[in-house]
Amino acid sequence: MPRDSFEPSSRRTPAVARLSPRRRVPEATSHTIRDIARLSGFSRSTVSLVLNGDPRIKPSTRQKVWAVIQKVGYEPNCMARSLARRRSMITAVVVPKISSHLFSDYYFSESMSGISDTLSAKGYRMIIEMVTDNFLKDGMHLRLFRECQIDGMLLVGTLDTDEYVGEVLSSGYTAVLVNSWRPGCSCVVADNMGGAASVMRHLSALGHKRIGFIGGLNSTTVGLQRDEGYRRGLLECGLPEATGLVEYGDFSEQSGYEAAKKLLSKKNRPTAVFACNDMMAVGCINCARDMGIAVPDDLAVVGADDIALASYFQPRLTTLHQPMYEVGCLATQVLLDKLAGVGEWPVKKVVLTQLVIRDSSGFSREGRVSGAARK
Amino acid sequence: MPRDSFEPSSRRTPAVARLSPRRRVPEATSHTIRDIARLSGFSRSTVSLVLNGDPRIKPSTRQKVWAVIQKVGYEPNCMARSLARRRSMITAVVVPKISSHLFSDYYFSESMSGISDTLSAKGYRMIIEMVTDNFLKDGMHLRLFRECQIDGMLLVGTLDTDEYVGEVLSSGYTAVLVNSWRPGCSCVVADNMGGAASVMRHLSALGHKRIGFIGGLNSTTVGLQRDEGYRRGLLECGLPEATGLVEYGDFSEQSGYEAAKKLLSKKNRPTAVFACNDMMAVGCINCARDMGIAVPDDLAVVGADDIALASYFQPRLTTLHQPMYEVGCLATQVLLDKLAGVGEWPVKKVVLTQLVIRDSSGFSREGRVSGAARK
DNA sequence: TTGTATGCGTTATCAT
DNA sequence: ATGATAACGCATACAA
Asked: How distant is C1' of C3 from CA of B297, in Å?
């Protein structure tokens, strides 16, 4: 009983209840695939096949259908398509909420740009979720998959201690970690360990023997890896792991200031300091200034991240540039490959970092030195 | 012919074609509303009503149904719900793509945070779209509504010359402009005009008579309004609109440098400069330094935006703080109100700006002065 | 190659 | 108060 094709102007009409036309107010009267079928004289399926570029459709048919589509300005409904295809073309990007000023952090902004560019180039859309207490309480990390039908998830800069990450990864859904590292899952990270080691070689080459370290949170991958890189650098340069040369902060300027205070108050204070990120480097330099220690003359300071401030601060910061844009792009590509069913899985990728030499380490002209890659 | 309720374990079974069970691999076997109906012994409709908190449902039924929902961890499918409800609970946030480093700009990052917080508090999700050439070519601005069924759109910092904005607004879809201004539509902006005037009063109070202005792009609302505020400020302070005191840039540091060069090369150069944004203020100060003009002693400089750099730059920048977080929140609220059918429409809202006095204008301690509100 | 029938998971209408 | 069923708009085995 064909009840589809030749009903001139109405939607599929039920056998009996012709009395109450179910059509709701067609406010913006957008067309459906039915309209195209009717107008073009083909069936819905044919239109659908044309829409999806199926090669089985005869060219002449294809053209006729497309002509109608163009003419009436038909656009397929994503929701309906997702429902039928069971694939939403939507990716969630989950970012930690650090204060309420998340997006201003270079680290995240750069990765977001890379992610966004790569996703939209492939026709994917992204929804952004910030990890708040509510996010966790509502179990949003899994609801995004189940309720919202997202195809995949990018987890940016998560902590080793974030439990929800484990839940996502073990749930069987597709996810990639951006700049954090866990065994058994796909991760794309900047080569912080190798980069940190290159910082140490740089300072060592300048003649420094006592190089201090202001660490960050070792629950973060960057914190941990830069810490390891510091130690590896000492080894490579043949420097002893002297005591009293390491203090930890929490990545904030304030914590960098306080760590520096401890470091610089010692009888045998370091002549150079590698701070785990730029903000702590800034704190360190401010502390040195307050203590009457000149940077870079009496103390060389190197940061990491290469935030915008780094090149405007006085002295301009020598720092380890982390190519977060590239990391974002690559991570997204890994995710999309998996969704497309190509490539390996899981996969680990490392993007090289670069040492940007400015003034705070005693050089006066800017230059770049490639960081070491871990192969 | 009831074919729904008492089919123990299978989906709706067609009269004949029982041979080929259409069910595809239920990979992650998530439950549907049918499962809940079956398990609880009620109909799909009842479950749906329970799910949506309909008051007509008897409390005992409500409890029984919820018990099952909790037990099996059922979560409704957004796509199906959106399709049926014709409302997606998704909002698009459209931001201009300035270089590839969009998110690093304070202006946008702050507004995004406000938008994100407000949306997620109301159960809305946001998808972020950057305006690129492709965005425009594909007609994405309207496709988002038609294809993706977004409920509303927030347009952040658009230019007066952006044509797609007009198309969105005239299309009948719901949209709010964030920090830009057009007649006949809903806008939420920072009070840049009043704020700029307060900058002028500040400089005038410091004794400056010749106050220069480095304008931005007057195709932007902030550019235009700060320009107007500059002139209004001159008037309020009884200063003449002298010639040769105004130059324009494009908001970049470089353009600020060049504008300053012209301004400061004149025989009768200004003793103070109000730059339309912080980056141009930085360029101006760098230029002054290169010309041997001391800031703030020989030249007072005030910027606008209060980007993170402002308090780290030397000298620390006196600047007009623009509460973009609040602007983002408010704009989102306006949008959601409209979607909920409450409040007026269209609506114009102005958020006060604040003058943050630091070192570049000659003061040594930080302080805040409320900007003037336009009523 | 094209058409038919049905499914995707939910909401909304109407009848009971 | 609850149940049955038709939308919602598209995709897709399978038949023709």
From this structure: 84
- Which nt has its C1' nearest the CA of A81? D10
Contact B314 A314 (CB under 8 A): yes
- CA–CA separation, A362 and A352 (whole Å): 24
Please give the pLDDT value at position B245: 95
Q: Which option is the CATH number for A90-190+325-352: 3.40.1010.20, 3.30.2040.10, 3.20.20.70, 3.40.50.2300?
A: 3.40.50.2300
Break chain A into its structural domains and give their ranges: 30-58, 90-190+325-352, 192-321+355-374
Question: Which of the four pLDDT bands, split at 50, 70 and 90, describes residue A172?
Answer: confident
> Chain B partners of A104 at a C-beta cutoff of 8 Å?
104, 106, 109-110, 308
Confidence of residue A294 (pLDDT cuts 50, 70, 90): very high
Q: Are the beta carbons of A79 and B101 separated by less than 8 Å?
A: no
Per-residue model confidence (pLDDT) at position A31: 87
Q: Check if A90 contacts B (Cβ < 8 Å).
A: yes
Per-residue pLDDT tens over the stretch B260-270: 999 999 999 99
Parallel/antiparallel/unpaired status of strands A300-305 and A272-275:
parallel
Q: d(Cα A366, Cα B227) in Å, to the nearest integer?
A: 37
Query: How many Cα atoms occupy the beta-carbon half-sphere of A48 within 13 Å?
Result: 9
From residue B252, alpha-carbon distances to A20, A109, A200, A359 in Å are 62, 19, 35, 23
Rounded distance between C-alpha atoms, residue A145 and residue A168, angstroms: 9
Average pLDDT value for chain A: 85
Percent with pLDDT over 90 in chain A? 58
Predicted pLDDT of residue A13: 31
Distance CA B284, CA B290 (A): 10
Which residues, 6 or more positions from A123, have their beta carbon under 8 angstroms from its beta carbon?
A89
Distance from CA of A125 to the nearest CA of B (A): 7
Kind of pairing, strands B175-178 and B152-156? Answer: parallel
Angle between helices A221-236 and A192-205 (to 10 degrees): 40
Phi then psi for A274, rounded to 5 degrees?
A: -105, 115
User: What is the pLDDT averaged over residues B136-144?
Assistant: 90
Task: Judge whether B130 is closer than 8 Å to chain A, CB to CB.
Answer: yes
Q: Which residue of B has its CA nearest to A27?
A: B172
On the question of pLDDT at B61 being above 70, the answer is yes
Dihedral sign for Cα atoms in the order B171, B177, B181, B183:
positive
Residue B312 and residue A282: Cβ atoms within 8 Å?
A: yes
Residue B309 and residue A309: Cβ atoms within 8 Å?
yes
A contacts of B116 (beta carbons < 8 Å): 128, 130
Q: Quick one: pLDDT at residue A307?
A: 84
- Which of B16, B146, B154 to probe by mutation at the A interface, max A CB count within 10 Å? B146
Q: Does B90 contact A127 at a Cβ distance shorter than 8 Å?
A: yes
Express as a percent the part of chain A with pLDDT over 70.
86
One fold for A90-190+325-352 and A192-321+355-374: yes
Note the pLDDT of residue B6: 30
Instruction: Determine whether the distance from the CB of A17 to the nearest atom of strand D is below 7 Å.
Output: yes
Task: Please write the tens of the pLDDT for every residue from A13-64.
Answer: 333 222 233 333 334 457 899 889 988 999 889 999 999 888 888 888 999 9
Yes or no: is domain B192-321+355-374 CATH 2.60.40.10?
Answer: no
